[in-house]
Amino acid sequence: MIKLNFSRELRLLTPAQFKYVFEQPLRASTPEITILARRNDLQYPRLGLTVAKKHLKRAHERNRVKRLCRESFRLLQHELPNYDFVIVAKHGIGKLDNPTFTAILSKLWQRHIRLAKKSLSN
Length: 122
Fold this sequence. Notes:
The structure is a single chain. By secondary structure, this protein is of the alpha+beta class. The chain has a single domain (8-121), classed as Ribosomal Protein S5, domain 2 (2-Layer Sandwich), CATH 3.30.230.10. The protein has helices at residues 15-23, 59-76, 98-121; strands at 26-29, 33-39, 46-50, 83-89. A 4-stranded mixed beta sheet has the order 1-2-4-3, with helices on both faces. Strand 1 (26-29) and strand 2 form a beta hairpin. Helix 2 (59-76) packs across helix 3. The longest helix is centred in the last third of the chain and has 24 residues, at 98-121. It is an enzyme of class 3 (hydrolase). Its EC number is 3.1.26.5.
């Protein structure tokens, strides 16, 4: 049975881990959200989130975005390549409703899966 947990080991925790992804990322983006990715040496993907107060003033709005991102990652973690992912929220993300937001995330995850397969074949 596949475990769909989101434990501590599946998260990017330190500034150095985030910096590693920001140095040479693969990007998939929409006007509201960007997912950056970079290959890691582990056997599983990891996730980091950046949601600035500049784009979402209220804490409950930032928490909603982070919760939806974590849930999306948790459900797809076994399909994703062994990359470190950083989700960057941009202006206008707060205006999206939950179904639209999850659809956008799903599309971006699929794009990263395709990019990873393409880079493996090269």
